[in-house]
Amino acid sequence: MNQEIAKIFYEIAEILEMKEVAFKPRAYQKAAQSIQGLDENVKTIFEKKGIKGLEEISGVGEGIAERIVEYIKKGKIKGYEKLKKEMPVNISELVSIEGVGPKLIKLFYEKLKVRNINDLEKAARHGKISTLPRCGKKLEQKILQGIEFYKKSHERFLLGDVFELAEKIKSRLSELKETEKIEAAGSFRRKKETIGDLDILVVSEKPKKVMDFFVSMPEVRHVYGKGLKKTMVRLSNGLDVDLRVVDEKSFGSALQYFTGNKAHNIELRKIALKKKYKLNEYGLFKVGSKKSEVRIAGQNEKEIYKKLGLQFMPPETRENTGEIELAQKNKLSEFIEEKDIKGDLHIHSHWKVKKGLIKERIKKAKELGYEYLGISDHTKFLAIEHGLNEQDLLKQSKEIERFRLHVSGFKILHGCEANILTDGSIDIDDKVLSKLDYVIAGVHSQMKMSKEKMTERIITAMKNPHVDIIAHLTGRVIQRREEYEIDFDKILRVAKETGTILEINANPVRLDLNDVKIRKAKEFGVKMIISSDAHQNEQMDLMKFGVWQARRGWAEKKDIVNTMSFKEISGLFKKPKKKRF
Ligand code: DGT
Ligand code: CA
Ligand code: CA
């Protein structure tokens, strides 16, 4: 509920800003920010402490608290609905075009009736934008470029953005008594970082019931086509979903086929042909003389790989990038699994502004079955994140020491996520760094640097004997910020030499390192760590996205240091960096 309310408040702020209302936009924005960052659901707060509890949230005054209560009780906010009527434009969509802000949106709506990106594109293409006051040809061009970029990056969905929805749809369908088997295939099953569309397979004797239910789901906005074997819909968030009902005896082969990817399938079919078999979505068949066909596999996916003389390949690896050759030679390793993860070392507790969160993080870590947790708040250079300075870190160490006395059967490490400054130095004194259990360092500023300079900057940080881990190496934010250019080979060599660990940031908007880089790091013998980088408790659940990415990069348990026991990993950090691996 917090995210929904935050989104509405952000939008109210933007509409009010368009209307040039004073002060209020900022108030809504601030409230949205703190609600977004809350660990507890506002509904729970309200149930426990009433409206007074809501007013305790930073940036939430009486008026805004009332709006929240309204939303909790009625699922909508009247004032917001009214604002939307006056200004019926898709603001959150329009503001994501670079160069377009609330004032321009208002102008475009009033003068050109622009309500969404499509309208805006038309207006710009017809040269209407440049006829408006203070809007030249330059702006018009910039807007067209912005739209181009927006479209390119919005054709696909982040796995992290659709994961829960997909699971929800799957579980609803699987609860139908008419559904015998269900599985999601395609890029979703391969755990690709972005998903073009979702492909679901079902086995059922009563396909009509399943399809009727499917198109009646509340999220379905448009039905492209509905049949007994295949139905295609678009959901209200824009995601397309294909649902196929297949025969029980073909379920394994359909799953194999629709999992893909296409190149992997083509290779597999070639192998089948060599063996005088035929492979398609209905099964694996032996082709006899006179073209007679005998099914030799189909119900079970594993059986298909086996009959083709191949080791089973996890869906994450099926990209035809060498996995088939290795499987033929029986040389495919076992890849890391979620259950191998024993702890998370990149965890923020916002200690400077809120003291109680370490305890909550520990509780959550225990729920996740971890053996240890590392607290690693931002450091002083990052003022917007309330970074800790040297003194704060030392004080925090003492507090963590106290926690250790009170928490049994669980280990806590104390680190920080320090900043790599432009010259490669770290924003915290070496003396203090040496007192921490471990140090993560990352680039958080000045990202526009030449490839050489950025590489040097990171290498200098890796050579610091106190820096154990480099966070989110390339700085990318998927579909929003390109990675900065670095000489990755050079960085890998230095990481290996210095014993520096590279992070696989599990946040689905980052997934940094990506799959290709993970595979290369492994080839170089560089060790990695998978981290949630959680700023809220619920983000600690993101670890799985990092594990999947690691599997896509063929990482094994031994490549990832947070599969180690507490004893091993704390022992590791105590050794000088160069002697670790
Ligand atoms: P996406 O949706 O763009 O993220 O990627 P996929 O891999 O889910 O692709 P999609 O939805 O077009 O098709 C699902 C799977 O079906 C794909 O991974 C492999 C299989 N497939 C689709 N078209 C063909 C084809 O023409 N030949 C073969 N062999 N397989 C295909
Ligand atoms: Ca797909
Ligand atoms: Ca598809």
From TrEMBL:
<keyword id="KW-0548">Nucleotidyltransferase</keyword>
<dbReference type="InterPro" id="IPR003141">
    <property type="entry name" value="Pol/His_phosphatase_N"/>
</dbReference>
<dbReference type="InterPro" id="IPR002054">
    <property type="entry name" value="DNA-dir_DNA_pol_X"/>
</dbReference>
<dbReference type="InterPro" id="IPR043519">
    <property type="entry name" value="NT_sf"/>
</dbReference>
<dbReference type="InterPro" id="IPR002008">
    <property type="entry name" value="DNA_pol_X_beta-like"/>
</dbReference>
<keyword id="KW-0234">DNA repair</keyword>
<dbReference type="InterPro" id="IPR022311">
    <property type="entry name" value="PolX-like"/>
</dbReference>
<dbReference type="InterPro" id="IPR050243">
    <property type="entry name" value="PHP_phosphatase"/>
</dbReference>
<dbReference type="InterPro" id="IPR022312">
    <property type="entry name" value="DNA_pol_X"/>
</dbReference>
<dbReference type="GO" id="GO:0008270">
    <property type="term" value="F:zinc ion binding"/>
</dbReference>
<feature type="domain" description="Polymerase/histidinol phosphatase N-terminal">
    <location>
        <begin position="343"/>
        <end position="422"/>
    </location>
</feature>
<dbReference type="Pfam" id="PF14520">
    <property type="entry name" value="HHH_5"/>
</dbReference>
<dbReference type="InterPro" id="IPR010996">
    <property type="entry name" value="HHH_MUS81"/>
</dbReference>
<dbReference type="InterPro" id="IPR028207">
    <property type="entry name" value="DNA_pol_B_palm_palm"/>
</dbReference>
<dbReference type="GO" id="GO:0003887">
    <property type="term" value="F:DNA-directed DNA polymerase activity"/>
</dbReference>
<dbReference type="GO" id="GO:0006281">
    <property type="term" value="P:DNA repair"/>
</dbReference>
<keyword id="KW-0488">Methylation</keyword>
<dbReference type="GO" id="GO:0003677">
    <property type="term" value="F:DNA binding"/>
</dbReference>
<dbReference type="InterPro" id="IPR047967">
    <property type="entry name" value="PolX_PHP"/>
</dbReference>
<feature type="domain" description="Helix-hairpin-helix DNA-binding motif class 1">
    <location>
        <begin position="92"/>
        <end position="111"/>
    </location>
</feature>
<keyword id="KW-0808">Transferase</keyword>
<dbReference type="Pfam" id="PF14792">
    <property type="entry name" value="DNA_pol_B_palm"/>
</dbReference>
<dbReference type="InterPro" id="IPR029398">
    <property type="entry name" value="PolB_thumb"/>
</dbReference>
<keyword id="KW-0227">DNA damage</keyword>
<dbReference type="GO" id="GO:0042578">
    <property type="term" value="F:phosphoric ester hydrolase activity"/>
</dbReference>
<dbReference type="GO" id="GO:0140078">
    <property type="term" value="F:class I DNA-(apurinic or apyrimidinic site) endonuclease activity"/>
</dbReference>
<dbReference type="InterPro" id="IPR004013">
    <property type="entry name" value="PHP_dom"/>
</dbReference>
<comment type="function">
    <text>Repair polymerase that plays a key role in base-excision repair. During this process, the damaged base is excised by specific DNA glycosylases, the DNA backbone is nicked at the abasic site by an apurinic/apyrimidic (AP) endonuclease, and POLB removes 5'-deoxyribose-phosphate from the preincised AP site acting as a 5'-deoxyribose-phosphate lyase (5'-dRP lyase); through its DNA polymerase activity, it adds one nucleotide to the 3' end of the arising single-nucleotide gap.</text>
</comment>
<dbReference type="InterPro" id="IPR003583">
    <property type="entry name" value="Hlx-hairpin-Hlx_DNA-bd_motif"/>
</dbReference>
<dbReference type="InterPro" id="IPR037160">
    <property type="entry name" value="DNA_Pol_thumb_sf"/>
</dbReference>
<dbReference type="Pfam" id="PF14716">
    <property type="entry name" value="HHH_8"/>
</dbReference>
<keyword id="KW-0239">DNA-directed DNA polymerase</keyword>
<dbReference type="Pfam" id="PF14791">
    <property type="entry name" value="DNA_pol_B_thumb"/>
</dbReference>
<feature type="domain" description="DNA-directed DNA polymerase X">
    <location>
        <begin position="1"/>
        <end position="319"/>
    </location>
</feature>
<keyword id="KW-0237">DNA synthesis</keyword>
<dbReference type="InterPro" id="IPR016195">
    <property type="entry name" value="Pol/histidinol_Pase-like"/>
</dbReference>
<feature type="domain" description="Helix-hairpin-helix DNA-binding motif class 1">
    <location>
        <begin position="52"/>
        <end position="71"/>
    </location>
</feature>
<protein>
    <recommendedName>
        <fullName>DNA polymerase beta</fullName>
        <ecNumber>2.7.7.7</ecNumber>
        <ecNumber>4.2.99.18</ecNumber>
    </recommendedName>
</protein>
<dbReference type="InterPro" id="IPR027421">
    <property type="entry name" value="DNA_pol_lamdba_lyase_dom_sf"/>
</dbReference>
<keyword id="KW-0915">Sodium</keyword>
<keyword id="KW-0235">DNA replication</keyword>
<dbReference type="GO" id="GO:0005829">
    <property type="term" value="C:cytosol"/>
</dbReference>
